[in-house]
Amino acid sequence: MKDNILYYGDNLKILREYIKDESVDLIYLDPPFNSKANYNILYKEPTGESSRAQITAFEDTWHWSDDAAITFQEITNIASPNVVEMMLAFKQFIGTNDVMAYLTMMCIRLIELKRVLKETGSIYLHCDPTASHYLKILMDTIFGKSKFRNEIVWDYTFRMMDLPKFFNRKHDIILFYAKSDDNYFVMPKTEWSREEIIETRKQKVHIDGDGDECIWMPGGKGHSKNKLKKIKDIIKEGKAISDVWQIPVISSSAKERLGYPTQKPEALLETIINASSNKGDVVLDPFCGCGTSIAVAQKLKRKWIGIDVTHLAINLIKLRMNEMFKIKPKTDYTVIGEPKDLDGAIELASQNRYQFQWWSVSLIENARPYQNKKKGSDTGIDGIVYFDGDKKAIIQVKSGHVSVKDIRDLGHVIDREKAEIGIFITLEEPTAPMKKEALQKGFYKSDVMGKDYLKIQILTTKKLLEGKIPDIPLQIDIFKKAKAVIQSDTHALNL
Question: Is the CB of residue 468 less than 8 Å from the CB of residue 246?
Fold first, then answer.
């Protein structure tokens, strides 16, 4: 098995079944809360022996339900007494509502995350003001108050508005805890401003034998004496940062922007990963979304483990890793939890057609899902592949009964979107009239490749799993692709 692993499924189950005790050096998590998006989970044993998939409902708002009550009871059975007492106090104070369900689901996961963290490891929990105060108490209880390191303020930039009831909110909180007193940490440094250099030079108290300006600097840990240090060395080393990080959010025109609604800037993750891990260490993100933590870990030459509950996220991460680093699943890293055969695909489709659509799109290389699926909203487009510069093939996925009408409808979508090619993915075998209708749409002639391509191409899920690919021109200049990375040993820090 490869060092780097991407899991699709419920992170609680994956942590318990696949992640060993004290095997992770750094954990970053940005758990979803209050985004009102519903997700479903499918996961499958990596042996591939069973064709039956398990599905578990999982809402990121985490309402108080039978599942939440059962999980709360499990906490009282397995957790340490101080954690149980704190959760009982929370329940008495908060009641059985969405916030309590959220804290319950987070508590059981944080217990597992502490288990998998090495003694020298650290955990960074990203949260917003709706829950950060509760989560800090929970982290104090699980990891210990003495293991608290920082409440980091991510001060991001955005347009200010004249609000009627409250001040503009422009920061998130990141709670930084260590597993033990021996946590690995290297202070990140940033460049001194011109004004700071001028002020530093005003402090000079000594000229050394080389004629260099020096100032007294603190001696470091313990009761070490202050010592003289050359100002030019101080400037070269950079300035230690505080727990307030001024890093802008990703702008709409940023090269790293992928369109994922909660995407975090790479600079934020670079700061965390550089500070609390070393090359070759293992970084875990149990809510990895579009994979910023994974991408930055790869760039900084760390090993990584990513977990997410949607095929939308898994698909985006696979695209991102290919576009940034030219690495692909199977050969360069392992993906666990996706359907491996037709039975698994049928099971996924029967449980959640949106997940099936996202997964199906991922079977086509360089295809990206079309925005975020919402119930009741159907544009007739499930994915897009760009080629010949600005040309596109749209992908439509069907998990139920199909007929010639579906092919006619796809033809209308192709015309409406001014697309060159339409790829129709079907779980069922296509009928003869469907094939005939597809042929009647004609061909797209690629001036780049000097070849004709069928405008409507029908592919079954079975054929895709067997390795068949759509016949489309060479894909170049992919829209909104992640910026390719040239890995090096030096990484600038902008705060």
Answer: no
Alpha carbon separation from 337 to 66, 285, 427 (Å, rounded): 26, 16, 19
Domains of the chain, by residue range, sit at 5-185+242-336, 192-237, 354-465
- Which residues are CB-contacts of 266 (< 8 A; sequence separation ≥ 6)? 256, 292, 295, 296, 299
Displacement of CA 87 from its chain's centroid (Å) = 28
Assess contact for 147 and 179: CB atoms under 8 A. yes
Those residues whose C-beta lies under 8 Å from the C-beta of residue 4, and which sit 6 or more positions away, are 298, 303, 304, 305, 332, 333, 334
Classify 204 in phi/psi space as left (phi over 0), alpha (psi -120 to 50) or beta: beta
Superfamily of domain 5-185+242-336: Vaccinia Virus protein VP39 (3.40.50.150)
**Structure pTM?**
0.83
Sequence-distant (6+) residues with CB within 8 A of 432 are none
- pLDDT attached to residue 54: 27
Distances (CA, A) of 272 to 123, 245, 265: 10, 11, 12
Contacts of residue 246, defined as CB under 8 A and 6 or more positions apart, other chains included, come to 155, 156, 157, 495
In eight-state DSSP terms, residue 238 is: -
Cβ contact 361:395 at 8 Å: yes
Of 30, 45, 477, give the one whose Cα is nearest residue 290: 30
Q: Give the tens place of pLDDT for each residue, 276-303.
A: 999 999 999 999 988 999 999 999 999 9
- HSE (side-chain half, CA atoms, 13 Å) at 137: 12
> Given a cut of 80, is residue 105 above it in pLDDT?
yes
Domain spanning 354-465 has what CATH number?
3.40.1350.10
In the chain, % of residues over pLDDT 90: 59
- Listed residue (405, 466, 459, 400) closest to 434, CA to CA: 405
Distances (CA, A) of 83 to 23, 74, 125: 23, 12, 18
CB 407 within 8 A of CB 426: no
Under the phi-then-psi rule, with left for phi > 0, alpha for psi from -120 to 50, and beta for the rest, what region is 326?
left
359, 315 contact by CB (below 8 A): yes
Burial 224-234 (b: 16+ CB within 10 A, else e): eeeeebbbeeb
pLDDT value of position 134? 95
pLDDT exceeds cutoff 50 at 187: yes
Q: In Å, how far are 89, 169, 312 from 134, measured between CA atoms?
A: 12, 19, 30
pLDDT at residue number 42: 30
